[in-house]
Each structure stands twice: as C-alpha cells, then as structure tokens.
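EI: anyone free to look at a 109-residue chain?
SC: sure, send it
EI:
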Amino acid sequence: MRSDILQKYPDSSVRVYVVWFDMLPGDSRHLVDTRVLNDSRATNYYDPNRIVGSWFADRSGEQGIVWDTYLLYGPDANWTAQPQPLLSSGSSVIGSSGDLAAAFRKLGQ
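SC: here you go
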C-alpha cells in the first residue's frame, strides 16, 4: 500500500482508513506500528472489540470477522447504511497488494 500507492501517487486525494485489532496470539495494541502507513492521507484506528471486522463480515455474508483485508471504494462511494459500490477487495493485504494497486490505477488517481 505505501510503496505501490501512497508513494507513487503523492498528489492523489486517496484516503486510507486502517483499523487495527487483535486477531492472532501475541497481537496487542502496544505492538501496532502505525508507521507502516505513515502518510497524512492514512488514519489509524484501534478497535479492541473487533466491531468493524464483525460489521463487514455480517454485511458480506462471511463467517466470523473480516481482517487483513483491503476494501477499495471510489470517489462516488455512498457511505450511508452500507458503503457502496465496492470496487475491489482482497485478503491478505500484502498478498493482494498487486490487485489493490491495479484497481487503484483504474480509478485514474
């Protein structure tokens, strides 16, 4: 994300919302490194109750919690009852970074 999008498109008006929560043994709020996406267009949140991951799982029909996932919405996204339209998504974030970069380029950012 940082090298494929944020650094390559420094003038883009993209907004990145990063939600951190504990999923694996050893995960901890104290171990979150927000410098991973150190960019003024990125906002980091910590969700100790995994509300965001549960909310997205409920609305996507997935079981459990959505995590280590990117969700890409375009400039025309509507954020009312459910954000839409979803342009691209993938998991794991690192494993899907090429797909995310390609979808971002299609936006013409």
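EI: The longest strand covers residues 69-78.
SC: 👍
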